[in-house]
Specification:
426 residues; ten-stranded mixed β-sheet; 14 helices; globular
Length: 426
């Protein structure tokens, strides 16, 4: 791209387990918190923001186009437009990329982007019969008509309908797609447990050292707001490999190997970043946290959606002419341990590279010491709409901390997609 996109700074809420300490906070309120804190931290004049773009997957019924709702709640003037984007697990990254494209097309210079999700508020719906009954009751005008409708109510109408978590294209849950990869790439239960254990260890160490605190804004907890949440509550200090070995498979109980301990945690959270053209940052006298270089997206078989990062990273590197070895740090969202391990294996496989990536030689091995250095979603959690933005924020902060230059962030996407972005710091 002709001009780099500057990321001035970013903030996020703590990532906390669903139905836990943040269960009473709506997704739009989580988003509003980080937008308000980002404005305060960067000192940006809200009037010069061209647009807010936020990722969100569950789309709460009370706040359609949730981006607009949280933008106004978060302190942006009413004249600033806002748009919600949804690319499933990569929605937060899609928000960043959408803003980049708008900047490149001269459709604006200053954007607030990010993502939010309250997994605690996972929707539970009424059945069709109950909905029809409610409509009839609301239309009944006289007491006699209302009584007639009331007596037609049956207990089975009240049975809740929980939305299916299986992929509509392949019929598999995300966990079952991880099982597909574990078998295809012969990833053992022991390898998965070991990967998950290291994720927990790295996240716990990053919390203790204060590195993750650099990203987080403390938030008061309802209903009394007498307590402040300051840290991610997913990482388990007392996690042992022996404890992980005791967990049963949950997606394929007979022959499977994927467990709750090797899967990403269901989590609430929000992230916000301030983006602008490099020239605008110089004009405003702002020192960016880092810059966005390139990005790409790929699609693949929905049943193997976890391999999305392999396809997306390959396309990205074909575009910019670089190699994996040119990058100091890599973030791959840990939907499942088996899924990340499959990506690592695929990128190093001559056969996979030739057949699936149309490459004569493989991209190579990913150095585990450069991968997800502060842990990943297995420990920190995966608030769907926010994770992509969190990866970019974590990556840039850690490049700064380590005095390194280049990094890649990538996610797999339900439905069979992958997305990747390359960044650098100075």
């Amino acid at each position: 791209m002709s001009e780099r996109i500057a990321i001035i700074d970013g903030v996020r809420t703590p990532f906390c387990k669903a139905n836990g300490v943040m269960k009473d906070i709506e997704a739009d309120d989580l988003g509003a918190i980080v937008v308000r804190e980002l404005i305060a931290k960067t000192g940006i004049n809200p009037d010069i923001v061209d647009e807010l773009i936020f990722g969100n997957v569950l789309q709460p019924a009370h706040a359609t186009n949730i981006a607009r709702v949280l933008a106004v709640k978060g302190g942006l003037p009413e004249h600033v437009p806002a748009m919600t984007v949804n690319r499933n697990c990569a929605s937060g990254l899609e928000a960043i990329i959408t803003a980049c494209n708008k900047i490149r097309l001269k459709e604006g210079n200053v954007f607030i982007v990010g993502g939010c999700e309250s997994m605690s508020k996972f929707p539970v719906l009424f059945s069709d019969k109950m909905r029809e009954w409610l409509m009839r009751f609301s239309k009944a005008k006289t007491l006699k008509e209302k009584c007639k409708v009331l007596f037609s109510l049956r207990l089975n109408f009240l049975a809740p309908v929980v939305p299916k978590i299986s992929d509509p294209l392949c019929g598999l849950s995300m966990g079952q797609t991880a099982e597909v990869l574990s078998k295809e790439f012969r990833i053992t239960r022991e390898q998965q447990d070991s990967f998950a254990f290291r994720s927990q260890q790295k996240a716990s160490q990053a919390i203790k050292s204060g590195r993750l605190a650099q990203e987080i804004v403390p938030i008061p907890l309802p209903p009394k707001f007498g307590k402040i949440q300051t840290y991610d509550d997913g990482p388990r200090d007392n996690q042992t490999q022996e404890g992980l070995k005791q967990l049963p498979p949950i997606f394929d109980k007979l022959t499977g190997s994927v467990t709750a301990g090797t899967s990403s945690q269901v989590t609430d959270g929000a992230v916000a970043l301030l983006l602008m053209s490099e020239s605008k940052a110089k004009e405003l006298g702002l020192k960016p946290l880092g810059y966005i270089n390139d990005y790409d997206v790929a699609a693949l078989a929905p049943s193997k959606m976890g391999l999305g990062p392999a396809y997306a990273i390959s396309k990205l590197l074909k575009k910019n002419g670089k190699k994996l070895a040119d990058y100091d740090l890599i973030e791959i969202n840990e939907a499942f341990a088996a899924q990340v391990l499959a990506v690592i294996s695929a990128l190093a496989s001559p056969e996979f590279s030739k057949k699936e990536l149309q490459r004569d030689t493989p991209l190579g091995e990913i150095d585990r010491e450069r991968l997800n250095v502060n842990g990943g979603a297995i420990a920190l959690g995966h608030p769907l709409g926010a994770s992509g933005a969190r990866l970019v924020l974590t990556l840039l902060k850690e490049l700064k901390n380590r005095n390194k230059k280049r990094g890649i962030a990538s996610l797999c996407v339900g439905g069979g997609q992958g997305q990747a972005i390359s960044v650098e710091v100075e």
